[in-house]
């Protein structure tokens, strides 16, 4: 008798920060000059190196034979834009792989910790991510990946309101579950596994009942994150490990940074492809959209979960890694003052946008949401302005103001990229964030002549303890000054 086949989903979250030279982006586009970075081997920057080790390796030279044909995945918009330049032809192959499987899901546009953003900013990021996916893959996304799996009820409500069907969340996000009419607290095993059925869709208390979440298996995530699992031969080791993770549902669910497959674990891409191409592995690899469709046909009652107030997959303190000195890594007291400085700058932009465009955009949220159509090239800025403005025939001076402020939406949201707060000390990623802050501040100078001076005084308070041993600059103001000097 053969081994009974079970189902499983491996989700790869593929993302890189937008490594572009400050002030190099062509207005009203996502086209910019790639930034040269230190230490990525013979490659131009870290995105190019990881592309060779991971993204291209998983493509396996043929979309039909690629890992993307068998795994659920999302590619962040800023990564896709870089791959268009660094790896011409890759995006076409990725789209072809998705056409064979419908395995791709969307991602919020800039990789920010969305629950830390203002509600309006969250909605814009989700809407931009959805529209970017539709423009790229030529279909409507069924789901959205949340950066760092950071989730809140409010954030999920935006995703549901925009017509998506599900999201993937960490087990630490779940506080309670209601099954068979009874609520119970969700407890974690010693391995961190929640008392939930893997691979089962759950409704979320307080949300539209037609929206669902899937909870990934934390132990399989940690196998890729903290062990040599991906460097081990895939057969029979991998299948045996997967089978040990089976719950009552007979389902396996795993989510991880896609870069583990070939970058963080050198044999990861090779072994993942070998797993997918095994003969009769006893596991049917699919995607969550298919699982959801099968679970609800015929319609049936599913469990309901209640969310914890704060959770993510990279911080045991909720959102602390991106907001305060929570204890993740060490010398991280700079995180809160950096966020506060950039929040202040964002509010300066928001106030200016309203003041300068209020007779043209009386309801500014709508044009902010729709501006993604300009960035993808679906519409020209003139077409966008004609559709969104309630005032035809702007003067040349008025047109220039609207053009500058709309274009500045990109650095306004990009500067909150999560990577800037992730590591110990302010390094390459903080440099990326402050590059966008510099672009935004320079755009606002005609409206607020002292803004750069005020911003720099705030950044001077963002100290970088231990910077000497990491060969970094002593504070955020010095980083900002260095960006301006290099761009001169």
Structure description:
The strands form 3 sheets. Strands 1, 2, 10 and 11 form a 4-stranded parallel beta sheet that branches. The protein starts with 5 loop residues before the first strand and ends with a helix. The protein has 2 domains: 6-314, Alpha-Beta Barrel (7-stranded beta/alpha barrel); 321-487, no CATH class. It has 488 residues and is an alpha/beta fold. The protein has helices at 46-59, 77-86, 90-101, 119-137, 153-161, 218-226, 237-244, 268-276, 288-295, 335-357, 365-370, 372-375, 381-388, 396-407, 409-414, 419-422, 428-444, 451-459, 467-470, 476-487, and strands at residues 6-14, 72-75, 106-107, 143-145, 166-169, 174-179, 182-185, 203-204, 212-215, 251-257, 283-285, 304-307. Helix 5 (153-161) links the parallel strand 4 and strand 5. It has 20 helices and 12 strands. 42% of the residues lie in helices and 11% in strands. Helix 4 crosses helix 5 (153-161), helix 10 (335-357) packs antiparallel against helix 18 (451-459) and helix 18 packs across helix 20. It is globular. The model has no long low-confidence stretch (mean pLDDT 90).
List keywords for this structure.
alpha/beta; 7-stranded beta/alpha barrel; four-stranded parallel sheet; 20 helices; 12 strands
SSE layout and pairing:
Layout lengths: L5 E9 L31 H14 L12 E4 L1 H10 L3 H12 L4 E2 L11 H19 L5 E3 L7 H9 L4 E4 L4 E6 L2 E4 L17 E2 L7 E4 L2 H9 L10 H8 L6 E7 L10 H9 L6 E3 L2 H8 L8 E4 L27 H23 L7 H6 L1 H4 L5 H8 L7 H12 L1 H6 L4 H4 L5 H17 L6 H9 L7 H4 L5 H12 L1
Parallel strand pairs: 1-2, 1-10, 1-11, 3-4, 4-5, 5-9, 8-12
Antiparallel strand pairs: 6-7, 6-12
Helix pairs in contact: 1-8, 4-5, 10-14, 10-17, 10-18, 17-20, 18-20
